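Batch job 17 of 40 flagged for manual review because the log was empty.
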Amino acid sequence: MAQSEKSKQKLLSLLRLFWERTGESCGLTLEEIRDSLAEEGIEAERKSLYNDIGLLTDFGLPIEKRREGNRTVYYLAQHLFTVSQLKLLTDAIGSARSIPEAEGREIVKKLKKLTDHRTSRELDRQITVTGRVKHLNEEFLSNIDLIQEAMKEGKQISFQYWEWTADKVQQPRREGKFYTVSPWTLIWEEENYYLLANHYRSDRMHHYRVDRMMQMKISHYPRRGQEAYEKIDFSAYSRGLFGMFGGTPEPVTLLCENHLAGIVIERFGTEPTFFKEADGEHFTVTVRVVPCDLFYAWVIGFKGKMKIVSPQSAKDELEQMAEAVLEGLEE
């Protein structure tokens, strides 16, 4: 390449040099910058580098300089993300069950390009996902795009829905018959993406795990269920769901020992009112939940330190569940 063409490339090469090799913890002297450019066949005098750095600074690049012993180094003071933000993103991607492992590695690889080489090495983090399966559905990301497109166009979607068998094999539910639903919103809950959609037959809102959808297509039929969707109070909606089981949230009053206050707040927020009991050791609180086995198991898990006060139907279902567990142990 002719030298005149190389000189035109100098600013771009200088920009890449600052982006990839400098940061808050590492800088380059003018001599190191000049030597790096020379490796690309680009000649740069000291005075011209001052001018080029000034141009990049005027352009908006936060290039600063500092003294390190007897050296003056230049560095990019700020990248798009801080180190802590990038670590947070890579950890979230690495631990998210819905993102296939190969796709997660590809995303992290791209994130590493958003900072300097030294910082990018800190992003090679091993995230331990204990006791859980990292799903392998390669259609996951394209499903997200199709759902967003369908919602934008106000159309229904159809798809197959798979489940695990006792042989640890994935197989379509309902012998492979397609579900047809009206998509309304995506919910991130318990490290999975769920689609909240109106089923055309039941005319009710249902939840579907996006990573369990296959063969998704956008229908030409307009979506339905807007009235039911607009009635949902999302500030409290997901708090009352356990395992994203569908159903209508109902008021349930709990009697809890005082040390469980934090657990109740983390689950249901600060809105529910705590009523202190006369003994000074308990409080009662009324929360809205979808009564289901996972909720009852959650209450049982506190070994009597949390009890259901009302309604009677919830107390009866909890008792029946406990009896079934005891019968299973006896057998």
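Reviewer: the log was empty due to a logging misconfiguration, but the result itself is present. Confidence is low (pLDDT under 50) at residues 126-132. Unflagging and moving on to job 18.
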